[in-house]
């Protein structure tokens, strides 16, 4: 069986990456239940990207979007929220637009550290927990208590989570290097790259479930 890595490049405060992750999860589940699953094993891997590396530690989400994305126009902001809600609801996502924003460096640091030390399954659960906390509960994306709670949800002991989250130097050099590497090739997220025997296929933007399925099947066909 061919072992293929599916690299998902994201920022934990980008709603399009959350929706793309939901769709990709559905596509992977559909592929794994098909006869083609006997030819390829797909492992999901996460690559970090910061939409705004210079973002401050904390900001009010509603106010930040109003000022920086919608030019102070409350009507435009309401239209945006309604549009995003309509896209998210079929995926089982109950979007909230209030709460706090913040720099995501340490969220990426923690994800990358545990992806390396605990493996892809733990990283997958950690990403899901961070998405839900930020987008559906309005929690800050990288406060210590939020990161610790997400780690525990992912099956990491509270003691280890507190140690890694609390010591800001653990994994910091590594994640900064990875962010620099990723930013050389990526200027928007989400990006999904599926590795194949003959070629890799890269999809940019939040694609529909069937497009992800077709890509997984294409790589499988080319890898037999």
UniProtKB/TrEMBL annotation:
Gene3D superfamilies registered for this protein in UniProt: Glutaredoxin
Start and end residues of each DSBA-like thioredoxin domain: 6-216
InterPro entries, alphabetized: DSBA-like_thioredoxin_dom (IPR001853), Thioredoxin-like_sf (IPR036249)
Molecular functions (GO terms): oxidoreductase activity
Protein name: DSBA-like thioredoxin domain-containing protein
């Amino acid at each position: 069986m061919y072992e293929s890595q599916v690299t998902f490049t994201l920022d934990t405060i980008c709603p399009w990456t959350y929706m793309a992750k939901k769709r990709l999860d559905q596509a992977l589940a559909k592929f794994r239940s098909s006869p083609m699953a006997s030819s390829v094993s797909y492992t999901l891997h996460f690559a970090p990207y910061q939409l705004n590396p210079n973002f401050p530690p904390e900001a009010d989400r509603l106010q930040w979007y109003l000022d920086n994305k919608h030019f102070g126009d409350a009507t435009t902001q309401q239209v945006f929220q309604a549009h995003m809600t309509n896209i998210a609801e079929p995926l089982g996502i109950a979007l909230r637009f209030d709460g706090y924003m913040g720099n995501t460096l340490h969220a990426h640091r923690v994800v990358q550290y545990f992806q390396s030390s605990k493996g892809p399954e733990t990283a997958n659960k950690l990403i899901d927990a961070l998405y839900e906390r930020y987008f559906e509960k309005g929690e800050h994306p990288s406060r210590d208590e939020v990161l610790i709670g997400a780690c525990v949800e992912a099956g990491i002991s509270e003691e280890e989570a507190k140690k890694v989250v609390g010591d800001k130097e653990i994994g910091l050099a590594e994640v900064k290097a990875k962010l620099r590497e990723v930013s050389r090739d990526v200027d928007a997220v989400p990006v999904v790259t599926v590795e194949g025997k003959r070629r890799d296929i890269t999809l940019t933007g939040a694609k529909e479930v069937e497009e992800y399925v077709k890509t997984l099947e294409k790589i499988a066909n080319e890898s037999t």
